[in-house]
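Example 9 (inverse folding). The structure is encoded as follows.
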């Protein structure tokens, strides 16, 4: 019995003339309309935009936290199975005999720069330090934060957020797009990945919706990345020049101010648009190679002058711990703790006071001592052992709050970034096998991330543990922690030189990310075309600048302490629909791989000579 050929007749309606020549008018206009509405809302009513986005974001986290955690765990195991099965892993994404377009060095450097560059600069010290002080084990009260005892659990979650799960998110999208583009000669666009499930429906409104969801998620994911990166760029400029006008001096530690952030944003996005106009063959490739070289210099600075032995010991211990806890990290999800559930877990003496006790006992960002000091009246008069039992009763609530505010934020960020990085990975991976793609884009970069986080972050932690930093690194803002760590590790002209190099590295990482994002958005808009018009790259660069700028301003209105809050809220909201699309991508790919395997089997049988 023969198997009918797969559906490949994807027909994306494109304009034949005018401004949108070669582009889908429906996708472009709808995407721009959504972004324009967001920009106008944030510009005209910033306080309202910040408040509504924050409230909606938390509501979605309450309802979909478990969904986010479980589906990302599924992505990791799905790719592992696809890579291990011989029939699927050996498939070449391209015609028989196709050779990879880029060398392994350029392939990895582009993947590294576009996929994680800015995140590694901002969070190389901030993430391990933050999780050393707050992670599910410290939240449960099992170990004290910021101690040697909390080091293993801190790195367990550092590796979770930057390890195999994180890169699996990118690769689910990238593998789906690359497989159909290079084995079925279909357009390199989001809707292609769902054709095994929906067939010709992808030629109509449903296909437009899928592509628009990809564009919106891309814009918001890239916006958050650039927002964090610009903040660190301004911190670096302040460390070099000491110019106060860029900073907000009202807090405990200097932090980038709104004026500085907008000025930095304009510089970065101007360079990004210029790079995007040059195209992936020149701008992204050369910047990516420069990024990798400068990253190696920065890494070697920490190897030579930092706490390398401590870092390597931590790497080995943390990696074993991460693997041993891999399944529980993948699927251990929490939902919000109800008032009834909290009250039922209380000791009898505390049940009448449940309403006064719940907020403090379920606060993921507090501590037992902070919980006790915040009590008043009859609640404060409860015995110590009763209060300890009350705090234990709120553990599920604290675990949910921590997971929703930290791990789920990361998963939403990676998912929002995945249309951009996934499509970009697909674009540079023609001629590679499925197994090579998965190993090269999941395992290899994750191992580099682990080394980066332990060498840079481990040095910062060791400086704090031994008293060399005196609490300065912990007290600095997330985007300033790298520069404070360098200041505690080296000094003089060498410190100035490395700081300048870091600022250049941040700038090139930012330009690479924005540049690649602009190229990817235009690829989706043009129905998968490899080359898109210069004017459209410029327009989307301007739109991206406006989205980031207005949401940064909105985040600081109405007493907002963190200009990134509105951006992060918008990103998490925009990522949810695309998470569903990614789940459907996995189902589609399972069907495509199975059916293609059956076709190959039938073709081989048909070619056998009769006996």
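The amino acid assigned to each position is listed next.
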């Amino acid at each position: 019995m023969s198997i009918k050929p797969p559906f490949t007749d994807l027909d994306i309606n494109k304009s034949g003339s005018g401004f949108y020549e070669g582009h889908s008018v429906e996708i472009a206009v709808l995407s721009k309309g959504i972004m324009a509405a967001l920009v106008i809302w944030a510009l005209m009513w910033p306080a309202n935009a910040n408040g509504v986005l924050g409230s909606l974001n938390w509501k979605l986290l309450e309802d979909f936290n478990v969904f986010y955690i479980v589906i990302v765990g599924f992505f990791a195991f799905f790719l592992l199975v696809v890579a291990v099965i011989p029939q699927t892993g050996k498939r070449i994404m391209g015609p028989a005999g196709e050779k990879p377009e880029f060398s392994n060095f350029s392939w990895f450097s582009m993947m590294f720069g576009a996929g994680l560059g800015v995140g590694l600069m901002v969070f190389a010290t901030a993430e391990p330090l933050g999780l050393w002080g707050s992670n599910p084990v410290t939240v449960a009260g099992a170990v004290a934060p910021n101690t040697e005892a909390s080091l293993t659990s801190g790195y367990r979650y550092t590796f979770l957020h930057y390890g195999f799960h994180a890169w699996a998110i990118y690769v689910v999208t990238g593998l789906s797009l690359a497989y159909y583009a290079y084995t079925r000669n279909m357009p390199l666009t989001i809707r292609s990945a769902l054709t095994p499930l929906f067939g010709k429906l992808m030629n109509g409104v449903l296909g437009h919706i899928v592509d628009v969801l990809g564009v919106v998620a891309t814009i918001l994911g890239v916006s958050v990345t650039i927002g964090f990166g610009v903040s660190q760029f301004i911190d670096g400029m302040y460390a070099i020049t000491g110019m106060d006008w860029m900073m907000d001096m009202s807090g405990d530690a200097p932090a980038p101010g709104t004026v500085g952030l907008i000025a930095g944003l304009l510089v970065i996005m101007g360079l990004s648009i210029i790079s995007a106009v040059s195209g992936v063959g020149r701008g992204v490739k050369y910047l990516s190679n420069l990024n990798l070289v400068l990253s190696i210099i920065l890494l070697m600075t920490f190897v030579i002058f930092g706490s390398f032995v401590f870092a390597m010991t931590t790497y080995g211990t943390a990696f074993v711990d991460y693997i041993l806890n891999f399944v529980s990290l993948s699927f251990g999800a929490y939902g919000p703790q109800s008032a009834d559930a909290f009250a039922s877990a209380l000791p009898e003496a505390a049940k009448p006071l449940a309403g006064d006790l719940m907020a403090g006992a379920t606060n993921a960002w507090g501590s037992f001592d902070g919980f006790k000091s915040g009590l008043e009246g009859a609640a404060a008069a409860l015995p110590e052992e009763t209060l300890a039992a009350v705090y234990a009763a709120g553990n599920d609530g604290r675990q949910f709050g921590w997971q929703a505010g930290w791990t789920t934020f990361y998963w939403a960020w990676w998912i929002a970034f995945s249309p951009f990085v996934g499509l970009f990975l697909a674009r540079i991976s023609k001629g590679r096998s499925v197994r090579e793609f998965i190993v090269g884009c999941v395992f290899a970069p994750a191992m580099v991330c682990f080394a980066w986080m332990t060498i840079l972050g481990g040095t910062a932690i060791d400086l704090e543990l031994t008293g060399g930093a005196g609490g300065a690194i912990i007290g600095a803002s997330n985007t300033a922690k790298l520069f404070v760590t360098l200041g505690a590790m080296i000094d003089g002209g060498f410190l100035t030189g490395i700081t300048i190099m870091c600022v250049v590295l941040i700038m090139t990482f930012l330009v690479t990310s924005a540049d690649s994002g602009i190229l990817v958005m235009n690829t989706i808009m043009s129905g998968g075309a490899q080359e898109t018009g210069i004017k459209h790259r410029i327009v989307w660069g301007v739109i991206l600048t406006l989205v980031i700028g207005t949401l940064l301003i909105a985040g600081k209105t109405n007493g907002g302490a963190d200009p990134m809050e509105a951006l992060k809220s918008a990103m998490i909201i925009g990522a949810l629909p695309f998470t569903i699309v990614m789940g459907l991508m996995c189902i589609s790919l399972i069907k495509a791989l199975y059916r293609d395997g059956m076709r190959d089997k039938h073709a081989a049988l048909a070619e056998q000579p009769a006996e």
